[in-house]
Design a protein that fits this description.
Helix content: 40-55%
Shape: elongated
Order of helices and strands: EEHHEEEHHHEHH
Strand order of the largest sheet: 2-1-5-4-3-6
Distance between the termini: 87 Å
Amino acid sequence: MVLLTMIARVADGLPLAASMQEEEQSGRDLQHYQNQAKQLCRKLNAQSPTRCTLEAGDTSFHYLIEHGVCYLVLCDAAFPKRMAFGYLEDLQTEFHDQYGKRVPTVSRPYSFIEFDTYIQKTKKSYIDSRARRNLGSINTELHDVQRIMVANIEEVLQRGEALSALDTKASNLSSLSKQYRSDAKYLNTRSTYAKVAAGAVFFITLIVYVRFWWL
């Protein structure tokens, strides 16, 4: 289930549009999650990962950044990640077409609140089980969701650590992993050469021994 959607300007975290499920329907304190979403948007910057999933208990925040705008959604943890990012990409395309040129000029929060109409229509198409099956076959060209960075929302907000720092750590870990694989490959190659050389020495020694003693 899609519980909350927020669109914000990355430069200053200004909310541009939002839509939230009724608390009676969701059975959750969505105000708490809305506050977390606002805090998260204020932490974003130009160096933040453009796609990220942040785990929040039995829910997950997913966001993508395009053209200086963050598109964020809160879903049940069981909601497919591919669907969540497909939903965000649909919102991004329509929002940029309608308001992209005006985004840098607005100063009032929720200047594009009327976009909620499109959010509601798109959300319904992703919640409907039959539509979700159809979308599952359509969205095969989405980026590989397994490579999207995953973090914990509480850790990010409580530490006060910018998401760009997390992205740097992820990049460093990736570099270390590549270096480890490279070193392991080099050592395996050296080991193979050593075994071949040892075999060759043994074989030559055996030939010399046979020639010396039997010929």
